[in-house]
Design goal:
Blueprint: H1 7-12, E1 19-23, H2 29-36, E2 40-45, H3 48-55, E3 64-68, E4 81-87, H4 98-108, E5 109-120, H5 125-130, H6 137-151, E6 155-169, H7 172-182, H8 187-192, H9 194-204, E7 206-207, E8 213-226
Parallel strand pairs: 1-2, 1-4, 2-3, 4-5
Antiparallel strand pairs: 5-8, 6-8, 7-8
Length: 233
């Protein structure tokens, strides 16, 4: 699946029987995956179109639900989750709102709750492939800076590691669909750069047996435990 490497999350989080919030859930693929692992999951996204796609999968699983909203102003109760996840989504929060988004994550976590953040870094073939469409260097840097600031106030860091994972696209059309689904505003830039992008797709990726290409992408994985605060239940 494009943009959906999950191995570090599987290794670091046991979600069975836990209440989990997936912030920036998109089409809900991770929500469904977490629910299948035994979690009770809320998927939150600001895009109504993305949530419509998430709900259209036909699942009637009572352990998952979707809500429309923004990370920096969660309309969810205090101390209502055991785990909050930002999976490739913190850098999509406006930079001026990233600190508020992490503060909101701390607010909705229960005592000793966990925050898992998986963020792409601004280098490697997968990044270079889409750089002409949307150079995310500034927002990816801002996400890392926000995480460092929140450590001083709200969380204790348990794990920090950089990993390289393969992002797969079954063909160039799948790359286009994924890129535009993440942010429809990218459509004009993608169209303007289509020939160059198609060439980059061929030479930056590794062909896969049976079709498609995979692209190396560097990620930083962080796992935090919410800091115990005075008066916190």
């Amino acid at each position: 699946m494009p943009g959906k490497p999950t191995q570090p999350l599987d290794e670091l989080l046991d979600v069975d029987g836990r209440d989990v919030l997936d912030v920036g859930c998109g089409d809900g693929w991770l929500v469904r995956r977490l629910a299948s692992a035994g979690a009770r999951v809320v998927g939150l996204d600001p895009s109504r179109d993305a949530l419509d796609r998430a709900r259209s999968d036909g699942s009637s699983d009572a352990s998952l639900r979707y809500v429309e909203g923004v990370a920096e102003a969660l309309e969810l109760p205090d101390a209502s989750f055991d785990v909050v996840i930002f999976f490739n989504s913190l850098h999509h929060v406006p930079p001026e709102s990233m600190d508020a988004a992490l503060a909101e994550a701390a607010r909705v976590l229960r005592r000793d709750g966990l925050l898992y953040v998986q963020e792409p870094l601004a280098h490697g073939p997968a990044f270079e492939l889409l750089r002409p469409v949307n150079d995310e260097t500034p927002v990816r840097r801002a996400a890392q800076q926000a995480l460092q600031r929140t450590l001083k106030e709200r969380f204790v860091e348990l794990v920090s590691r950089d990993v390289v994972l393969a992002v797969r696209h079954r063909d160039f059309d799948a790359l286009r669909a994924h890129t535009i689904n993440v942010d429809p505003a990218r459509a004009p830039a993608f169209a303007a750069q289509e020939c160059a992008l198609h060439s980059a797709f061929e030479h930056l990726g590794r062909p896969l047996e049976g079709g498609g290409h995979e692209f190396d992408q560097s990620f930083r994985i962080n796992l935090f435990r919410v800091a115990i605060q005075a008066g916190r239940i």
